[in-house]
Amino acid sequence: MANKKILVTGGAGYIGAHTVVELIQSGYEPVIIDNFSKSDRTLLDGIEKIIKRKPVFIEGDCMDRDFLRNVFSENDFSCVMHFAAFKSVGESVQKPLFYYHNNIESLVSLLEVMKEFDIKNLIFSSSCTVYGQPDHIPVGEDAPFKRAESPYGATKQMCERILEDTYLTGLRVISLRYFNPIGAHPSALLGELPIGIPNNLVPYVTQTAIGKREKLTVFGNDYSTPDGSCVRDFIHVVDLAIAHMNAMEYLNKKNDDVFYEVFNLGTGVGVSVLELIDKFQKVTGVKLNYTMGSRRSGDVEKTYADPAKVNKVLGWKTKYSVEEALLHAWKWEEKLAK
Hints:
By secondary structure, this protein is an alpha/beta fold.
């Protein structure tokens, strides 16, 4: 691909920032846009420390079409990676309209401006929440969408529907359905940085372990799982970032004028919340103060991926274990505390 310039929306966020590092280290030229509604400049600084130069960054909102037009008019992009979205299951239950407005409108605005500038290639950040509570585990890409357990999951279902309806007008799209990203860059220069109280499990674990939080609450111990806690497919964020590279390169090789395909991104191994806590304590040697609580609205009981399709078609497999991801997350937390 001659044109190496890639637009990365939400590139100052957790997954976007790690993907920017992988892009730059592979010779691409990412242009980051972010409005810092769920992030701050800390991860941009982390990118700079890893790559030894400032990344290209433009502050703005994906719902602002005029802003997007200015960005597209000044850059010739070969592909767009769309990470910009609100992503907390719990917060979406409390603020459903906030999520519907932001997550859907930002995609619609982006698609409209891409069409104006004849940009056809899009990698979309989707989620395993589109499956709701699946009938069968592990989950393959052909699993039907059940009713989403949260407004966040419903926004991802609707965004995928929008892409399915739109790609026939001239787009080439890959939707990547993430399972549960955790961990940090092995350098400890980049990691997950929640604004306020963490909504995701692992940063709450590490913040509790370091003393920022008094204790961790495990939501639910009466699920139909081996130990009663929810089961998830935890995937290292760097593995996730590399998968975006593989997806883009696969898309570049396709000759189709219009194209839409989905891939699950997971390890294929289910780990319960209590198992994760146990693994964290073993790899770090830190005792975690946690308590059992009632179920949380919006949570799926158990889900983990069947990664066969992504392994075969994209040639992608995870290389980091859950234990390594937890250790990297802990080193990142320790670095933040210095």
